[in-house]
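User: tokens in, sequence out, please.
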């Protein structure tokens, strides 16, 4: 229900074709936006909301295509190999760009050389959740269950090397326990596995599971941030839960293949700056647990990605991913 509400309205300021389309030949045919995760996750929610307004602004269809696999690396590699003509774009996050690079074998792209970065959408903490009517009610209960025996507690994520996977492993290190990781193709599958009793828990971006928490089908134990998140105000922060070393965030951005023209990058940045500044968009971002990361330039985004890759590298090595 939450996802349906988020997709109903496009940014009002761009509700009709604008001068953006008149500034050049691009786009004169449909544009694909590859999401390297299954439908239903935060990347999907964010991009489908924005794509509706992009169609009106640029006068062409902007089609979001889900290409999940290998923790987001499959779809991300597809965009890296595409022609830099503006007709194949990428909405992605921390996993493919700052985590997969430390895995073995490395992905078929280089985050520093394979992409033209366009804009940052924001960041979101990770949610640790269990079945809504299950016996585990707090992170202390969760730790106690995991301590019963090695890998007694299983957790789902959006894939091996996803930020949810690594956030779970980061917490396990701090708590001194071991968890059994079960990778899924996306957030919806991971949540259904909890509800169906096939896994104990999940660690995944909070926005993808807000509806489940609000509907009590799953219980949020903590969000991996210093403060609580407004979309799930009853869920403690990981700091409140007693694990300050497990703070983590999943960030989201828009990119294209390396070599994408500065004109196209500029026009997309102009659109995004306008659309995301609207009050309606800010409210929707807050509803799915997203927080602003400012408006960094493409060069600053590239530096940020490299810094995040260095931060996650030791966690990836420790996880065995």
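Assistant: Sequence out:
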């Amino acid at each position: 229900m939450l996802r349906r509400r988020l997709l109903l309205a496009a940014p009002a300021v761009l509700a009709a074709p604008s001068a953006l389309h008149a500034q050049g030949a691009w786009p004169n045919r449909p544009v694909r936006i590859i999401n390297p995760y299954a439908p239903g996750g935060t990347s999907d929610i964010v991009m489908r909301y924005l794509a509706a307004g992009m169609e009106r602004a640029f006068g062409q269809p902007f089609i979001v295509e889900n290409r999940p696999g290998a923790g987001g690396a499959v779809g991300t590699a597809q965009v890296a190999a595409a022609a830099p003509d503006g007709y194949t774009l990428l909405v992605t996050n921390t996993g493919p760009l700052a985590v997969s690079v430390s895995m073995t074998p490395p992905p078929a792209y280089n985050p520093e050389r394979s992409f033209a970065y366009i804009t940052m959408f924001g960041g979101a903490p990770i949610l640790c959740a269990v079945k809504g009517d299950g016996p585990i009610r707090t992170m202390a209960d969760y730790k106690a269950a995991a301590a019963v025996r090695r890998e007694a507690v299983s957790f789902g994520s959006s894939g091996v090397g996803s930020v949810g996977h690594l956030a779970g492993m980061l917490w396990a290190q701090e708590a001194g326990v071991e968890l059994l990781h079960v990778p899924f193709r996306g957030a919806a599958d991971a949540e259904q596995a909890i509800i169906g009793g096939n896994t104990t828990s999940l660690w995944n971006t909070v926005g993808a599971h807000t509806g489940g928490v609000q509907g009590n089908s799953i219980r949020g134990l903590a969000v991996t941030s210093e403060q609580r998140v407004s979309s799930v105000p009853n869920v403690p922060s990981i700091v409140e839960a007693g694990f300050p070393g497990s703070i983590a965030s999943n960030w989201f951005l828009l990119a294209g293949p390396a070599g994408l023209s500065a004109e196209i990058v500029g026009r997309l940045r102009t659109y995004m700056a306008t659309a995301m500044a609207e009050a309606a968009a800010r409210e929707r971002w807050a509803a799915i647990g997203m927080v602003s990361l400012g408006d960094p330039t493409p060069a600053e985004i590239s530096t940020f990605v490299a810094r995040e890759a260095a931060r996650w590298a030791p966690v990836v090595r420790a996880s065995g991913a």
